[in-house]
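User: Hey, my collaborator sent me this sequence without any context and asked if I could get a structure. I don't really work with proteins. Can you help?
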Amino acid sequence: MAGANLNDIAVFMAVADTGSFAAGARATSLTRSAAGKAVSRLEDRLGVRLLNRTTRALSLTDEGRSFHAHGQRIVDAVDQAEASVISPTGVPRGVLRLSAPHAFGQRVIMPFIEKFLAQWPGVQIEASFSDRLVDVVEEGFDLVIRFGGTAVDSRLVSRVLARDRYLIVASADYISRHGKPNSLDELASHQCLSFSSRGNRQRWRFADSGGHWFTAQVRTRLRLDSGEALHNAVARDLGIALLPSFLVGQDVDSGRFIHILPKITTETVEISVIYPDRRLLDPRVRQFVDLLATGLQF
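Assistant: No problem. I've predicted the 3D structure and written it out in structure-token form, which is a compact way to encode the shape of the chain:
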């Protein structure tokens, strides 16, 4: 064992933690083939099989589970050694890979990216703005920003950054042509626009005077899988939408959009950041998360 390659151990740990050679390869900046060869070299050196391989999944053998437990202590020791020779806060450097919902990324996250790049010249950022639900580990992201429920597995950490409230809005031209609903019941006679993605449809939820939540029935002829697309549909006078204030607040302030039923209690949405669970968080991830936590305000 004295001759074991630490890089091979690190690759095995990444493959075991992510559950696939492809994801483990991305986590260690290798090709899938190179990751497979690294694990095979380690198994040959140890004289045991560490992983059960099938066409559909990987699983640890008994020896693999034992070695993984000891390997984690090796990884922790290396992390502690690195931490001992850098400043307590760390200097962000390297590539930060992040993902955020399309409209939120374009409208809200971009200014933070600009500020972060100016503050930390040793950092490069790869950003994906999409309303697709990405896999943090499998796709190799350092952090992902999500709206709403953030049920995650044990490999991930979730932190709520801010909360935003939904507003019922329509364009001024739509209201001039179709009238302004004065109650939730009147929404049923209007064209409403909703978010829908992979069969998950937006629910229009409100609270009554007693604080009890209920779902209003609305008539929806147009469903879209993008917040930006819904915003554009409202701007084109196609109907009424229930959208977060970050997306429509400026339009309401300018008079372009009308805030309908402002006294109705609408849902708030949690804006969370999710990142891989690491004992020592990379400085670039920690600093960017802290920047968002102190700067996001709605």
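In plain terms: Residues 62-83 form the longest helix (22 residues). You can pass these tokens on to your collaborator as they are.
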